[in-house]
């Protein structure tokens, strides 16, 4: 009996002393990534920027003709041709947010980096354009930038177009 009891006592003592010598684990608070923050904590003081105060001269006729031809190409699903014409019109007259927005649309799926730049320019020229902000947020999500994407959606909610129709609000 002692032959069995003595090793058991040693095992029990070893376990007890080992447990007493183990360092205590202090739990740290969980790390919350930016993507897990509630909307109220992601830049809650966002304000829709003002539109540029200086109004450029009206677009020349050549720009309007290029834009009209590009819109026709978009309606006929010739996005590549439309992108070329919109790029030419923007080179001649870089003050039209609608041309940048349409260029972004024409480039979506084929050149998302240029589409991102086009939508970024459209938003800078017209901060109240709901569609440009929504598309910009989608492209930011594709670039794995959830916080700026969320900010763009929050700014989109501040645009006058947001509550104009249920479809806009759903977007």
What do you see in this structure?
This protein has 171 residues and is an all-alpha fold. The chain is built from eight helices and no strands. The protein has helices at residues 2-21, 61-75, 79-92, 97-107, 112-125, 130-142, 146-157, 166-170. Helix 2 (61-75) packs antiparallel against helix 3 and helix 4 runs antiparallel to helix 5 (112-125). The N and C termini lie far apart (79 Å). 25% of the residues are buried. The model has no long low-confidence stretch (mean pLDDT 81).
What are the SSEs and their pairings?
Elements: H1 2-21, H2 61-75, H3 79-92, H4 97-107, H5 112-125, H6 130-142, H7 146-157, H8 166-170
Order of helices and strands: HHHHHHHH
Which structural class matches the secondary elements? mainly alpha
Shape: elongated
The largest sheet is:
none
Q: What is the total tally of β strands?
A: 0
The number of helical runs is 8
The helix fraction, in percent, is: 55-70%
Mean pLDDT: 81
Strand content: under 5%
Pick out the low-confidence regions. Answer: none
Distance from first to last alpha carbon: 79 Å
Cα radius of gyration in angstroms: 29 Å
């Amino acid at each position: 009996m002692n032959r069995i009891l003595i090793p058991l006592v040693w095992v029990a003592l070893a376990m007890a002393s080992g447990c007493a010598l183990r360092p205590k684990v202090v739990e740290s608070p969980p790390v919350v990534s930016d993507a897990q923050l509630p909307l109220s904590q992601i830049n809650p003081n966002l304000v829709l920027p003002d539109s540029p105060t200086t109004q450029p001269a009206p677009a020349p006729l050549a720009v309007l003709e290029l834009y009209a031809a590009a819109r026709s190409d978009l309606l006929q699903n010739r996005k590549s041709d439309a992108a070329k014409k919109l790029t030419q019109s923007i080179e001649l007259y870089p003050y039209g947010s609608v041309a940048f927005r349409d260029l972004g649309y024409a480039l979506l799926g084929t050149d998302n980096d240029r589409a991102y730049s086009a939508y970024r320019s459209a938003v800078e020229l017209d901060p109240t354009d709901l569609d440009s902000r929504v598309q910009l947020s989608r492209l930011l999500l594709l670039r794995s930038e959830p916080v700026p994407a969320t900010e763009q959606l929050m700014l989109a909610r501040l645009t006058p177009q947001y509550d104009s129709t249920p479809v806009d609000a759903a977007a």
